[in-house]
Every structure is written in C-alpha cells, then in structure tokens.
Amino acid sequence: MDPGLDARIQSMFKRDVGVATLLAALMWATLLFTYVAAFSVIDDVKVKAILAVAFIILGTFNSLGLLSMSRRYKIEREHVYGEDIHHLDANRKAKQATRSAEVTAA
Questions:
Q1: Cα Rg, the chain, nearest whole Å
Q2: Which residues span the membrane (predicted)?
Q3: Is residue 99, in this structure, part of any structural domain at all?
Q4: How far does CA 66 lie from the centroid of its chain?
Q5: In-domain check, residue 104
Q6: Is position 50 within any domain?
Q7: What is the pLDDT of residue 104?
C-alpha cells in the first residue's frame, strides 16, 4: 500500500477513535448528571436503584457499541477509509477543475 495513503487512513482512524471516546465520555457525564438531577426528585429507593441499574446498562451497551465499531473499523480500515479518501480526492479534483475553468473563462 502507498505510504501516503496508509498515513491518511491512520490519521482518519485515530480521529474517529478520538471522537468515539469523546462521545462516550460525554454520554457518561450526561447519564451521571441526569441521575444526580433525578435523584433529588425521586423519593422511592427502589426507583432510584432501578434508575441507576438502567443508566449503567445503557452506558455500558453504548460504550461497548462504540468500542465494537472502532475495532471493526480497525480491521476494515483500508476498505472503509480508502473509499472515503477516494471520494474526497475525486471531489477535490472536481472543484479544482471547476475553478480552473472559471479562471480561464474570465
């Protein structure tokens, strides 16, 4: 594989993993904030416990989903990101062709 293409794929993969990590952290912060906000309103201890378990299950499944997505992208990164890079390059060439046509027409 072309080293330049591999570097671009690695860069896109790292960015996607970073975004997934940030989104997971924000989700956990939101769940924690929601639980703390609801904790003061709810009087029943059983409901608080059920809510805590539900939040933990929700956060765990969503975090595992993001982890699974990252692993799948790592395995198939040449296919996933290679196609994206191909389309990005094609769009860039089309824009350059349009700009050069506008310059020559003017």
A1: 23
A2: 17-37, 49-67
A3: no
A4: 8
A5: no
A6: yes
A7: 80
pLDDT at position 99, please?
A: 84
CA 6, distance to chain mean position in Å, is 20
Look up the domain containing 59 and give its range: 3-77
Residue 18 lies in a domain: yes
Structure token pair of residue 37: 């906000």
Structure-token pair, residue 102 = 């506008």
From the list 10, 11, 8, the residue with the least C-alpha distance to 85 is 8
Give the pair of three-digit tokens for residue 73.
């992208």
pLDDT tens-digit profile, the chain (106 residues):
678 888 889 999 999 999 999 999 999 999 999 999 998 899 999 999 999 999 999 999 999 999 999 999 889 888 888 888 889 889 999 998 888 887 787 6
| Token pair belonging to 40 | 């003061």
* Euclidean distance between CA atoms 93 and 85, whole angstroms: 12
Alpha-carbon torsion angle 46, 48, 51, 57, nearest 10: -80
d(CA 53, CA 48): 9
Q: Which helix (H) or strand (E) holds 42?
A: none
